[in-house]
């Protein structure tokens, strides 16, 4: 649970004026083609080959 709280804290600080453009599973984020999705795609691809 501490990891989740830390992640939420980091996300709040990263947003600083930005806006959430995609919400959902990691696969949803990749499919949306957002900047985050493009960065996340290779990570998911590596995870699926394990």
List the helices and strands and how they pair.
Blueprint: H1 2-15, H2 26-32, H3 35-48
Helix pairs in contact: 2-3
Unreliable stretches (pLDDT < 50, length at least 5) are none
Gap between N and C termini, in Å?
A: 25 Å
Shape by Cα distribution:
globular
Rg measurement, Å? 12 Å
Mean pLDDT: 88
Note the run of SSEs as H and E. HHH
Fraction of residues in helix: over 70%
Structural class: mainly alpha
Distinctive features:
50 residues; mainly alpha; globular
Structure description:
This protein is mainly α. The chain has a domain at 22-50. The protein contains three helices and no strands. Helix 2 (26-32) packs across helix 3 (35-48). It is globular, with a radius of gyration of 12 Å. The N and C termini lie far apart (25 Å). The mean pLDDT is 88.
Provide a quick synopsis of the model.
This protein has 50 residues and is mainly alpha-helical. 70% of the residues lie in helices and 0% in strands.
């Amino acid at each position: 649970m501490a990891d989740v709280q830390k992640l939420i804290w980091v996300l709040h600080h990263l947003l600083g004026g930005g806006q959430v453009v995609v919400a959902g599973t990691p696969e949803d984020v990749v499919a949306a083609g957002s900047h985050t999705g493009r960065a996340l795609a290779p990570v998911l691809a590596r995870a699926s080959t394990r």
